[in-house]
Write a structure and sequence with these properties.
Blueprint (H helix, E strand, L loop, with lengths): L4 E5 L4 H13 L3 E8 L10 H8 L3 E6 L1 H15 L14 H16 L3 E3 L8 H12 L4 E3 L10 H10 L13 E4 L4 E4 L12 H4 L14 E8 L2 E5 L2 E2 L2 H14 L4 E7 L5 E7 L1 H17 L2 H19 L6 H13 L5 E8 L2 E8 L7 H4 L12 H9 L1 H14 L1
Parallel strand pairs: 1-2, 1-4, 2-3, 4-5
Antiparallel strand pairs: 6-7, 7-12, 8-9, 8-13, 9-10, 11-12, 13-14
Helix pairs in contact: 1-6, 3-11, 4-5, 8-9, 10-11
């Protein structure tokens, strides 16, 4: 009789490498490794087939999810203007649902009974993986080794790997915990665990120049949007993956999008990390500039409030929920007229506006100008408006005056 199957979210990194032999030792499962390529780069997916089999998996699925990730998860979050706690552009947060979605699909294909992930019991990713599994197939069991095994640290994991002849991509001298995809790269652990330590940017950064090494000359870049979705850079139409990759190169050169963040994790603790999101920083700024031209005051104000809630949903792993889906539909509607071209100036970590135009611009020079605009705006009309707008203030002042007599 064949063994039941478990689908492992496999990256080939330290944690998931040691999970394969651990699963075989502690569960009577056939291990199906599944690696989701969301743009890790750096050769992280090279040789994974051989490595997974050597570590004890029966097979490996290597899924290229880059376009789906950017198109269906990154860009809807961008369109919402969602930023967690005012700094974090959610690079890890919206990658987990697309990965977990495909873990469930592989489980169905293989007839697996369980899904396993390498997220720690202190982190947010365990919630993101498991909420997605619950939403898509609650019958699947979830195995989370970090909540069960005796391994307490990355040093312990390295010792376990060495004892089981598992090839791993790091050593005890480089134990930063990193997550990389098309949208960003995060760095946690080691000296970063003390917020009093300045990050060692010269050796830490992977996508970006340190600020001191950014060029002394500014660079201009234009981004075209159609209905809130970026579609071209410097006049060249391109797909979502190519667009993000190009802006990462341009922004990284100018040290754009480096954030040192102490964030509030969903599980109740604060954590400190350094995030590199060059393309994301450029796109968020560009979209904000374009929206200032194309959206009315009330819509912009409500969108800013809603963006906070949307960011919390994404951060908390609630992608496959009615509220997130409904909010995305609302943001799609808001973005119907968010089409145009934004010109940006990149210099020493800064992104500033250098011009914007749109066929749906609400900016009317005839009204905004200090010149004669009597047909559209009569200065005398302001007097009556102000008297009515200030009526509650006048009534209150009159009451106070009468009370003092």
């Amino acid at each position: 009789m064949s063994k039941p199957k478990v689908v492992l979210a496999y990256s080939g990194g330290l944690d998931t490498s040691v999970i394969i032999p651990w699963l075989k030792e502690n569960y009577d499962y056939e291990v199906i490794a599944c690696c989701a390529d969301v743009g890790q780069g750096g050769g992280e997916t090279d040789g994974l087939q051989e490595k997974a089999i050597k570590s004890g998996a029966s097979k490996l699925y290597l899924l290229n999810l880059q376009e789906e990730y950017v198109r269906d998860f990154v860009f809807p979050t961008l369109k919402a203007g969602a930023i967690y706690e005012g700094k974090y552009l959610l690079g890890t947060s919206h990658a987990r649902p697309v990965i977990a979605k495909h873990l469930v699909e592989v489980a169905h294909k293989e007839g697996a009974v369980a899904i396993c992930h390498g997220a720690t019991g202190k982190g947010n990713d365990q919630v993101r993986f498991e909420l997605t599994v619950m939403a898509l197939d609650p019958s699947l069991k979830v195995v989370a080794p970090w909540r069960e095994w005796n391994i307490k640290s990355r040093e312990d994991a390295i010792d376990y790997a060495e004892a089981h002849n598992v090839p791993i991509p790091c050593s005890k001298s480089d134990l930063y915990s990193r997550d990389r995809n098309l949208w960003h790269i995060s760095h946690e652990g080691m000296d970063l665990e003390d917020p009093a330590n300045e990050p060692k940017y010269d050796t830490l950064l992977k996508l970006s120049n340190a600020l001191e090494k950014a060029p002394d000359a500014a660079e201009y870049v234009t981004v075209d949007f159609e209905k809130g979705v970026p579609v071209a850079v410097n006049g060249k139409k391109m797909g979502p993956v190519e667009l993000v990759e190009l802006l990462n190169v341009i922004g990284g050169k100018h040290a754009v999008g480096i954030e040192d963040i102490v964030e509030d994790r969903l599980v109740g603790m604060k954590s400190r990390g350094v995030y590199e999101t060059p393309a994301g920083t450029i796109l968020y700024k560009a979209l904000e500039i374009l929206e200032s031209l194309c959206l009315d005051r009330d819509t912009q104000a409500f969108k800013r409030q809603s963006a906070v809630r949307f960011a919390e949903l994404v951060y908390d792993g609630k992608w496959f929920t009615p509220l997130r889906e409904s909010m995305s539909a609302m943001f799609d509607s808001m973005a119907e007229t968010v089409t145009g071209e934004v010109k940006l100036k990149l210099y020493k970590g800064n992104v500033s506006s250098a011009g914007v135009k749109s066929p749906y611009s609400l900016y009317n020079e005839n009204i905004a100008s200090f010149g004669d605009s009597a047909e559209l705006y009569n200065h005398k009309d302001a007097e009556g408006f102000i008297r009515l707008f200030g009526l509650p203030l006048r009534v209150r002042a009159m009451m106070n005056q009468a009370a003092k007599k």
